[in-house]
Design goal:
alpha/beta; eight-stranded mixed sheet; two-stranded antiparallel ribbon; 10 helices; 41% helix; 21% strand; globular
Length: 275
Amino acid sequence: FQFFFFQLFNFFLTVRRMTDIKHTILVLSGKGGVGKSTVAAQLALGLVNKGLRVGLLDIDLCGPSIPRMLGVEDADILTCSEGWVPVYKYDEMLSIMSIGFVLEKKTDAVIWRGPKKTGMIQKFITDVCWKSLDYLIIDTPPGTSDEHLAIVEALKGKHLDGAVLVTTPQGVAISDVRREANFCKKIEVPILGIVENMSGYVCPHCAECTNLFATGGGEKLASVLEVPFLGRLPIDPEFGKCVGEGKDFIEEYPDSTTVSRIKSIVDNIVSGTNE
């Protein structure tokens, strides 16, 4: 009976928190190192750039990189009568929550078993005061693990629009993201589209984009899976520098080719979620 009451209580808390969130998107990848968190951060910044109120939830509990990417690594979360207050940027247009904010030291390792991870993710959904949001972007760990099952279970039937899959052009990454697509199918999460990251290299001197590796793999996979191809992002030295320093790349280099591609991907997502 106590377990049933606890589940029912969490359900009503989740419904209350999610009522004012119009769209929720998971960002997934089949393997690590494909730039999933970077893409999640840029999607959030791109949506803010369009004048939308955005929340960015980092549930990569063992490798929380979102705080550093957004230049809020030293921020602390506050509490109020309603729960946790997220870290804000851009006049509260961007709300950020991550396990990185609650660690005693930024270098502390998170060594948790499944139930504790599940409990923390549930707490992010029920205890964070997200307020009214146009989009909640959720950055997940690579692969298919307890965190993915926990967040899908917590959001089931509550404005979960679907997932954006991130891959690189190489065959190994594409085969891994295909497994991620099968995971989405099994748990009945719609795939909003595929982003091909690290597709080409932008010269810092002439801005020409050269294909160092294979290209087009993500687009071909999207065709095979019959899902939208959202676009491709190149390896851009200035982009990497901004991400490492916690700067807003869209704000720093508004006229760059990479920014135009980020905006195109964001436009495709907005279009897909408003159909």
